[in-house]
Amino acid sequence: MYALDSLYKRFDDCPLCRLSNNSLLHILGGGKKRKPKVVLVFINPTHTNISSNSNWNGSRFPFIGVTRFWKVLSDSSWLSSEMIEELNEIGWTRKTIKNLDSELYDRRIYITNLVKCSFPHGDYPEKKYFDYHLPLFKKELSIVTPSAIVSFGGLTTRCLTEKNLVLKNFFNNSKSLTYGYIPVYPCYFPVGRGNPKLATEILRKLRYLLE
Fold first, then answer.
1. By 3-state DSSP, what share of the chain in percent is helix, strand and coil, each rounded to 5?
2. Helical (H) or strand (E) element with 152
C-alpha cells in the first residue's frame, strides 16, 4: 500500500495544476486497492465530486456526492440497495463515504480516473494532462493488479486500447479488449452525457461474466 500512497502523492503534485492555479483537489482511487476483481476506469473528475473541494480532508475517489452514479451500480447488482438507501436517507457524510468505500472493498472493486485532476467544467482534459497522467496511471494499475477493467466512455476505451468503438454494436456479444495483459470491457458512461440505461444493462451482464 505504501507504493500506492507514494504514487498518489505524485498525482497530487501535478505541475500542470500548480501552473494553472487549480485549487481543486485531485481525485484518487477507492475500494480494494490490491488485487481487485475489477477496476472501474473513468476519464477525469470535476468539481461535482465534493471531495475535490480544497477544504476537504478525507477519502477522495470518483463520484463522491453523485448519487445517481451509485444508483446505476446498485441497479446492475454491483452495489447493494441498502447502500443507496443509506445515501438517500443520510446523505453524503464521512460515515456514508466510509461505508461506501468499505462496500467497494468487500465486493473487490477499485474505482479510479485516468486523469486525476479535477476541473471546474465538464470538458475533456487537454492533451498535456493525458501526457502527464497516463504513465502514472499505468504504474497505478501495475500496483493494484486488477483481474479486469471496465472502461467507461469512448475516450477512456480509446486511451486504454487504441481502438474506436461503437459500443452499441460492440457489446452485443460482451467482448473484451486488452490493456497489456488485462481484459478491458467497454461500457457507456453512466451519467451526464452518457447512457445510464445501456450502462446498467452492460454492467448487469458483466456482473455475472466477471464472477
1. 45, 15, 40
2. strand 149-152
- Tell the residue number behind the cell numbers 481484459, with chain if given: 183
Query: What is the grid cell recorded at 202?
Result: 452492460
pLDDT tens-digit series, residues 32-61: 999 999 999 999 999 999 999 999 999 999
Q: What is the CATH classification number for the domain harbouring 168? A: 3.40.470.10
**Paired strand residues for 191:** none
Q: What is the pLDDT of residue 175?
A: 66
Structural domain for 194, as ranges:
2-209
Query: Residue 195 and residue 25: Cα distance in Å, rounded?
Result: 27
pTM of the model: 0.94
How many Cα neighbours within 13 Å face the side chain of 138?
A: 11
